[in-house]
Design goal:
The structure holds 2 protein chains of 2 kinds. Chain A is an alpha+beta fold. In chain A, a hairpin with a 6-residue loop joins strand 2 and strand 3 (about 75-85). Chain A has helices at about 1-10, 15-40, 115-120, 180-185, 185-190, 190-205, and strands spanning about 50-55, 60-65, 75-85, 95-105, 130, 140-150, 150-160, 165-175. The relative contact order of chain A is 0.16. In chain A, strands 1-2-3-6 form a 4-stranded antiparallel beta sheet, with no helix packed on it. Chain A has a 4-stranded antiparallel beta sheet with strand order 5-4-7-8, with no helix packed on it. Chain B is mainly alpha-helical. Chain B contains 36 helices and 2 strands. Chain B has helices at about 5-10, 15-40, 45-65, 65-70, 75-95, 100-105, 110-120, 120-130, 135-150, 150-160, 160-185, 195-215, 225-230, 235-270, 280-300, 315-325, 325-350, 355-375, 380-385, 385-395, 410-425, 435-455, 460-465, 465-475, 485-490, 495-500, 530, 550, 565-585, 585-600, 605-635, 640-650, 655-670, 675-685, 705-730, 735-760; strands spanning about 480-485, 540. A two-stranded antiparallel ribbon of chain B has the order 1-2. At the A-B interface, helix 1, helix 2, strand 1, strand 2 and strand 3 of A face helix 1, helix 2, helix 4, helix 6 and helix 7 of B.
Chain lengths: ~210, ~775
């Protein structure tokens, strides 16, 4: 008890020094938190994204989203909102499947680059891909992750079945060539230069004497 | 989940980045708060902790709850999310007075070495003062609020997840700046008089009201995304916009005006003077301390104000289990049974690697889990080693009386065996041959039993076992070490039981004298010393990973690294072996092997031997010697080249470990589920009706983000190697300029190694251990 009091008092006599450091401390902690946050910033899938199709078919009102909004060959997140046409309430007991059909020849198209761990895992089947409710963050959306093999025009067919009703909507997707891997992964290569710059600043800060 | 309401409320997702940041902030704050609580109890009562936790929880709710999931469909939901980030979370976080607790809660080495110099750095303090000036804070908050609500920026955030996160970060940071001057987290002091906060708040409210009124009464839809968004339950986008404006207006204004009113009332009230005498102060502090102790016990924490390193053995139940001898023996017995099953299946089962236990468990899973253990704890494989269990059993009949020959008491033999293993692995595709794998395991048992059965101590572990050497070297980066708790207790020790042992417990067979043991090298985590110490003075203690790479200290058994060229060669074989071993599985190198076989007509083992000779010995050897030579010349170092290489060679361990991690975790993740069908097959072979028919097309954990982690390991490896190299260079030269000259050639070597590793991880690879 006496010890903790002494410690408390010893801290108590130095508030000015603490205060003087407070701005630097908060900036440093803020920078640290910002760096951590920026490093962990990730593209979250299944948030909806750009609307590729919206319209009525049979008893359904259908909205198709893709993420990223500007499509490139590679992984694309497709989500579908199925609503009752009459009252626009979301329907969660339908079966939704996706078909992706290439439009035109694949000779001049640029192939998508997959990370090595997925290179042999490519989904050859681009038809009858089930879109599931638990895929997206938003549990009202049916979603699936599609691997678009190469750039060009692709037709996305969305098949919806609910009880005896079976409907289909189509939309054309313009898929750009994939970005080169170093560009895609640039954010992972900035850690070493950032670390080195931080270290140089740290050494610089060590060497400088505080002004009187 | 056919009910939409349920679906809405279950639309939670945990974004990794923010969740990790929130968790880390909480851990560091709590750790620091506990410490400060005993030093300045009146400054850090329990409500500060609760307030900080409440602030973090608010941020989490904003970014992980259905608010985030529906922000793109409904503007009012999006507005609520922003309100939480700007108006609620920042004051709660600041009321926790977070910077002193976080500073005290961060690892001490990090605070001292990394943050410390910045805290007293004048330019940063000047930036801090500008950032925390009330005018800047007010402008930043208002500008952020207005700019992000302009249709161009709002649409940008809605259409790009990355910009959306930037927007959220912007709201949170400017919110923290704005509320700083109102909450004044201790020990900051007011820059302006308190009454000035009234116009500060009222003006901010005016801006907020204007923006909210515009949103509420504007008769067109401001943001096109919401115009086209699907209308859930026939919601009207214009009504939605008006509701969003109202949310911004009413709760927003309340949050601004209530503190303004409180400040005004306090300003107008007569000041109460409270004289606190010493007795009262002591009583208050004592009550606070009691209250905190009670609170900490209630939430399951041990209240102690002393700074002592984290010791795994001190964790209430887990610690006892970990150090119990039967626990270790039980794990060893399990591993022994697994080894038996692998050997039997390898010899008798189908000779298709992904269908056989011997093709899956040792090469894909065991290697993957041991590197994870090395990264998170330490040399756990040696702790549960099945070979030493068999050895201990066989020692009942074998004499173990000879002394290991003096010329072999070094790491040369081990380095040679590691190189041989790496050659055999590639030359005979060991991973693809269950039969050979089984024989290797059997040979291992035989070697361990014979060597340790004939020679004293753990000669096999220390001088022969290639697996042990791998773990010794990589565990230089492990966060835990078997070491003494209180060095003072060892100073008065006369019995040295930790190394000599006692009547009931043997001492360290690897001849590691605990008080002089400075690293994990040569430590098998057998915990004999823990059992032998009569003072209970040996723990499994948290250390700064990698600290031994640059310390240059005399350490028990191994000595200083500079005097152990044999150890440096072992390290270099393992480091460059990591690169060649990973290169062996990529398509360009496989093609090179095939082309070379066709061109020269040589068998594969010879081609692989040539490849390893060039890639693992000649080129790295030449590079390391050239680097050492340049470093010595440029820096004017007087010590011999061998010593310099020995010292700097060890600094390559983080890079090598990064490659091993990337490589072995790649296999673990791509072949994660493969033991399931193999076990189903084994059960069917044994006519055990336990499982269904094997599903050979079973999924795996192979996710695109795996590449991110692989690169992250390499990044961290490069950074730690660079840091270790710099520290070693500083040891050789007191002046920084000379240190730079000594360090520069090594830094080039690190970067070259890193680039080679990066090139490898981007190549198409074989899916070893899977059916693909």
């Amino acid at each position: 008890m006496i010890n903790s009091m002494r410690m408390a008092l010893s801290l108590r006599v130095r508030p000015t020094r603490l205060r003087a450091r407070a701005s630097g401390t908060s900036t440093a902690i803020g920078t640290l938190i910002f760096c951590v946050l920026s490093f962990f910033t990730e593209t979250s899938w299944a948030d909806g994204g750009a609307i590729q199709f919206q319209g009525d078919t049979g008893q359904f009102h259908v909205t198709v989203f893709t993420l990223p909004p500007i499509l490139s060959a590679g992984l694309v997140d497709v989500t579908v909102l199925v609503q009752d046409r009459s009252n626009l309430s979301p329907l969660l007991d339908a079966t939704v499947t996706l078909n992706l059909i290439s439009q035109g020849s694949s000779d001049l198209k640029k192939e998508a680059w997959s990370p090595p761990c997925c290179a042999l895992n490519k989904a050859e089947a681009l038809t009858d891909i089930p879109a599931k409710l638990d895929h997206a963050e938003n549990r009202l959306l049916y979603g699936a992750l599609l691997q678009i093999p190469y750039s060009g025009a692709w037709q996305l067919n969305v098949n919806i079945q609910r009880n005896i009703q079976r409907e289909n909507v189509r939309t054309l997707l313009k898929v750009n060539p994939p970005a080169p891997p170093p560009l895609t992964y640039w954010h992972l290569f900035i850690l070493p230069p950032l670390g080195v710059v931080g270290f140089i600043l740290n050494q610089n800060a060590r060497r400088r004497k505080p002004p009187r | 989940m056919a009910d939409p309401a349920n679906a809405v409320f279950s639309s939670w997702s945990i974004p990794i980045g923010p969740a990790v940041t929130i968790l880390l902030s909480f851990i560091f704050y709590l750790r620091g708060w506990i410490r400060l609580q005993f030093r300045v109890p009146d400054r850090f009562p329990v409500w500060r902790l609760l307030s900080f936790v409440g602030g973090l929880a608010t941020v989490f709710i904003a970014v992980a709850s259905p608010l985030d999931a529906f922000a793109g469909l409904l503007l009012q939901v999006h507005m609520t999310q922003h309100l939480l980030l700007m108006m609620l979370a920042p004051p709660l976080i600041l009321a926790g007075a977070p910077y002193l607790p976080i500073l005290s809660g961060l690892p001490r080495a990090f605070t001292r070495e990394v943050l410390g110099p910045f805290l007293v750095w004048h330019p940063l303090k000047r930036v801090g003062r500008i950032l925390l000036h009330p005018v800047f804070c007010w402008i930043a908050f208002v500008a952020s609020n207005v700019l992000w609500h302009l249709p161009f920026f709002y649409e940008l955030a809605l259409n790009s997840p990355s910009w959306h996160q930037v927007e959220h970060l912007c709201f949170l940071v400017t919110g923290l700046l704005f509320w700083w001057h109102l909450v004044l987290p201790w020990p900051s002091r007011p820059v302006w008089p308190r009454w000035a906060m009234i116009p500060y708040l009222v003006l901010a409210d005016l801006q907020n009201t204007a923006l909210a009124a515009f949103l509420t009464f504007y008769e067109r839809i401001l943001y096109p995304t919401y115009e086209h968004a699907p209308r859930l339950w026939r919601s009207n986008p214009l009504d939605d916009q008006a509701a969003a404006g109202t949310i911004m207006w009413v709760p927003g204004s309340i949050i601004f005006l209530v503190p303004a009113a409180i400040i005004a009332i306090r300003f107008l009230s007569p000041r109460s003077r409270v004289v606190v005498n010493e007795v009262q102060f002591v009583r208050v502090a004592r009550n606070r301390e009691r209250e905190t102790t009670r609170f900490l016990r209630k939430i399951g924490l041990d209240p102690y104000p002393v700074n002592r390193p984290f010791d795994l053995f001190r964790i209430p139940v887990l610690g006892r289990i970990l150090r119990a001898k039967p626990f270790r023996r039980g794990l060893q017995a399990t591993m022994l049974m697994a080894a038996g099953a692998i050997v039997l299946d390898g010899l008798l089962g189908p000779q298709i690697s992904p269908m056989n236990l011997a093709g899956v468990l040792p090469w894909t899973h065991w290697r993957g889990f041991t590197v994870i253990a090395l990264l998170l704890v330490g040399n756990l494989f040696c702790m549960v080693c099945p070979f030493t269990l068999a050895r201990d059993f066989a020692r009942q009949w074998l004499p173990a009386k000879w002394v290991w020959p003096r010329p072999l008491r070094n790491k040369w033999l081990a380095a040679l065996l590691v190189a041989l293993y790496l050659w055999a692995y590639e030359a005979f595709s060991l991973w693809n041959s269950p039969w050979l794998t089984a024989w290797i395991i059997l040979s291992y048992f035989l070697a361990a039993i014979l060597i340790d059965g004939l020679f004293q101590g753990a000669s096999f572990c220390k001088y022969v076992c290639p697996i042990g050497q791998f773990h010794f070297v990589q565990s230089l980066l492990s966060p835990f070490e078997v070491k003494v708790r209180k060095p003072d207790a060892c100073r008065s020790c006369q019995t040295f039981d930790c190394i000599r042992g006692g009547p009931r417990q043997r001492g360290c067979e690897l001849r590691l004298f605990q008080p002089k043991k400075k690293s994990n090298v040569d430590c098998t985590f057998c915990l004999d010393c823990v059992q032998a110490c009569p003072h209970d003075n040996v723990g499994l203690i948290a250390v700064l990973p990698g600290k031994d790479l640059w310390s240059g200290e005399q350490r028990s058994s191994i000595g200083p690294f500079a005097s152990r060229f044999d150890f440096a060669i072992l390290v270099l074989v393992l480091v460059f072996g990591a690169l060649t071993n990973a290169a062996g599985m990529i398509a360009p190198v496989s093609a090179l092997f095939e082309r070379a076989q066709l061109l020269f007509g040589l068998p594969r083992p010879v081609i692989v031997a040539l490849f390893l000779l060039i890639g693992m010995l000649l080129v790295p050897g030449a590079l390391v010697f050239a680097t050492g030579f340049l470093s010595r010349r440029l820096g004017g170092v007087t010590v011999g080249l061998k010593s310099l290489i020995s010292d700097f060679g060890v600094t390559l361990v983080p890079l090598g470990f990064g490659v091993w991690l990337a490589h072995l975790l790649f296999h673990l993740f791509t072949g994660s589920h493969t033991p399931i069908p193999v076990m189903q097959r084994v059960a069917l072979d044994l006519h055990l009706p336990l499982f269904n028919q094997p599903d050979w097309t079973i999924a795996s954990w192979a996710i695109p983000q795996l590449l991110d982690f692989e690169i992250l390991f390499l990044d961290l490896g490069l950074l730690v190697s660079l840091y270790a190299g710099w520290k070693v260079a500083n040891r050789y030269a007191n002046e920084n300029n000379r240190a730079l000259f000594i360090f520069a050639p090594w830094s080039v070597l690190y970067v070259l190694f890193f680039l080679a590793a990066i090139w490898i991880v981007f190549q198409p690879m074989d899916m070893r251990g899977t059916m693909m």
